[in-house]
Amino acid sequence: MSVEPRVNEQIRSREVRLVGPEGEQVGIVPLERALQLAADVDLDLVEVAPMARPPVCKLMDFGKFKYESALKARESRRNQQQTVIKEMKLRPKIDPHDYETKKGHVVRFLKAGDKVKVTIMFRGREQSRPELGFRLLRRLSEEISELGFVEASPKQDGRNMIMVLAPHRATKAAAVAAAETGRAPREPREGDQAEAPAAVETADSAAE
Prior knowledge:
By secondary structure, this protein is α/β, with parallel strands linked by helices. The protein has five helices and nine strands, in the order ββαββαβαβαββαβ. The strands form two sheets. Strands 7-8-6-5-9 form a five-stranded mixed β-sheet. The protein has a four-stranded mixed β-sheet with strand order 2-1-4-3. A hairpin with a 6-residue loop joins strand 3 (44-49) and strand 4 (56-60). The radius of gyration is 27 Å and the shape is rod-shaped.
């Protein structure tokens, strides 16, 4: 947890290294002189480097500084949320109804601003038919193209084939706006199941 800097009369040092509001170096001055300069320009004297000798203080609007710091912190949290990756598993010969259900999950994940790792699981002789997986992944990417794009093209990995989908910038922005207003993005009717609270979530694979 960060400690709020000392401001104005809270500063204890007898002299400070003063920095002007535009970042210009004023030099070492007595604390009383620094406080007077701050009052003259209607700004605050803020201790920005308390461990320096003498401590470094800057003339600034402390209220504005705190507001901008809060915005940066919120943006940082927003960026952390964007790293969430969901996972959806499918079989190459998936039933049409199961496909629509799982596509609904993918749509919901993208609308929430999350990336989706789509895995095609091959069994037995299916491994000799990789084109089935490519065809299914291409179909899925085309059908969700309004919400997202293929960030990592389909790639064979042992018995699995993996593709990563990412939301378009506009989709992600809509998800962030919905979160800030306390509303969840509108979800499709298919796949309306609750998500597990994990950084990477896996849905059960569909039976053939």
